[in-house]
Amino acid sequence: MAKIVILGAGYGGMRTAKQLAKVNNLDVEIVLVNKNPYHYQSTELHEVAAGTKEPDQITFDVRKAVDPKVKVIIDEVTKVDQDAKKVELKNGEPLTYDYLVNALGFESETFGIKGADENGWPILDINTAVAARKHLEDTLKNYKTSHDENDLRIVVCGAGFTSIEYLGELVYRMSEMAKEFDFPLDKVKIDCIEATPKILPMFDPKLADWGVKFLEDHGVTFHAGTPITEVKPNAVMSNDTAFPANTIIWTTGVHGSHVIADSGYDQKRNRVVVEDDLSVNGHPEEFLVGDVSAVPNPSNGRLYPTTAQISIAEADTAADNIVARINGKETKKFVFKSLGTLCSLGPKTGIAEVDMGGHWKLKGAKASVAKKLVADRSVTELTDVSGIMKE
Ligand SMILES: Cc1cc2nc3c(=O)[nH]c(=O)nc-3n(C[C@H](O)[C@H](O)[C@H](O)COP(=O)(O)OP(=O)(O)OC[C@H]3O[C@@H](n4cnc5c(N)ncnc54)[C@H](O)[C@@H]3O)c2cc1C
Predict the structure, then answer these.
(1) Which residues on adjacent β-strands are paired with residue 272?
(2) Whose alpha carbon is nearest atom 8 of ligand 1?
């Protein structure tokens, strides 16, 4: 009996386990390893960080969500020994495998900027999102006694998807927090600092401008073309310019799991350029899925961005290709058909370019509905258990 080990119960790992478990007459043992007993929807972590959702609205129990034939191990992967086909765990005995799917996901990227780790609040998982929310609320609450203007200043570092979606939730919740924590709303200052010259460059310029204006109208000041050079405890620096704030949110980007570098893979920013069937060069028994993989887009040679959408699509190909290998058949190439690019600006609005039955450019409530439909769909793509997440 072949043993398939899947690392990580995020989008890629959950989907791979679901797809493998439903293959009939496949004589395999499937093991899923995850460091937490729960799966979290990383695409909604910014909502937990801003306080518009509670953690239990974006998490579910991994054991309850997978097919009973999948054995779940809760432990932290520390290293993959590719030659010995062995996974080392923090607490348990090492696991051997015949086939491996590595879907260990993303970690925060600081680009080596001084003070970013110590002074910025990242949004990476449930613990960091909850910690960022607590700091934000404690700091805003503190203004009533401190009268320190920096308590009402928030700097969001980076203007990628996570930053923009976080800003949308933040401005949506701000007036409610002003009432709850008794601070003057007109003294709140929110700055978003971005090194590149354009905000939301992945969207049609009119949509991007609409999104930027929406956030500006709700109190955000964007500073594009402003590289961050240092993060101090109470200020973000761009060369000699200081952006003071007692809440600094660090959402400048991600790289893959540190386990990739620790295991000696040929990698860049903990992402490995995979073969066109998603296997690892020289290791046909191993597949990389999600944010640890780097997959060139055949139409332009550039790497696909790291998204949940792609992780799920890659998981389908990896599962099919493991079955093909077990059955002595040819593996297939990964082909990606994007559903589009969708960005929320709080719970009720957003911008989107949707590629379903045509190409649709949406803004406002329609874009928000489209975003929620894609997010809901992703939950059903990971588990067969209906109603697994709290509304
Ligand atoms: C705030 C935010 C909003 C986003 N919005 C969108 C969006 O709208 N649309 C979209 O498509 N993408 C979005 N993304 C990107 C998307 O979340 C990622 O691309 C996606 O989560 C990657 O999936 P994955 O399966 O590779 O890894 P992950 O979802 O990161 O899952 C990795 C899993 O592995 C576990 N793990 C990690 N290390 C270890 C270890 N050492 N041992 C054991 N277990 C481990 C983790 O706990 C986790 O369960 C967003 C990301 C963020 C942060």
Answers:
(1) 293
(2) 43
